[in-house]
Amino acid sequence: MLVRRLLARLLDWLLVLVVAWPLAHEPVLVVLGAAAYDALLLRWNTLGKALTGLRVVGPASGLSLRRVLARTLITTALPGGGVVLVLTGLGWREPALMAGLGWQQPWVVIGERVGTGSAGWLTPLLLVGGLVLLVLSAVESLDLRGTRTWHDRKAGTAVIRVASHR
Prior knowledge:
This protein is mostly helical. It has helices at about 1-25, 25-40, 45-50, 65-90, 95-100, 120-140, 150-155; strands spanning about 55, 160. The chain has two domains: about 1-55, no CATH class; about 55-105 and about 120-165. It has seven helices and two strands, in the order H-H-H-E-H-H-H-H-E. Helix 4 crosses helix 6 (about 120-140). Mean pLDDT is about 75; it is low at about 105-120.
């Protein structure tokens, strides 16, 4: 079940990346797109889960908005935020989003390295923070007990295999 779940997540992230990156060129916007995709389709099924024969279910009362948002925050925003912080720590910038917010920091052009001037301590801090978020995300995803990982238990959901109708 764990391999199916990881494959479903990978397929969903790849789908969002293929669709969102050409439109936005911003890691933050790609993560927001992935979170929106996950939250909007969680009550039905994401493409990755459908292709791997999985479905997220809640209690008999169904998946409430609170459950959907809690699960999306832990499963999508946490690792996505980690990736954004790691990319920023490695020197990748988000020019359009930061400029649009009026935030002119050293990372104005994608691909330029962060200077080691007065904000030189910021780079390792972002990198370590991102790695911590990614490790936390991996550890909580691997805490599988039956059909529920840690984030399923916290959100009150479970992932089940859907019987194929052949």
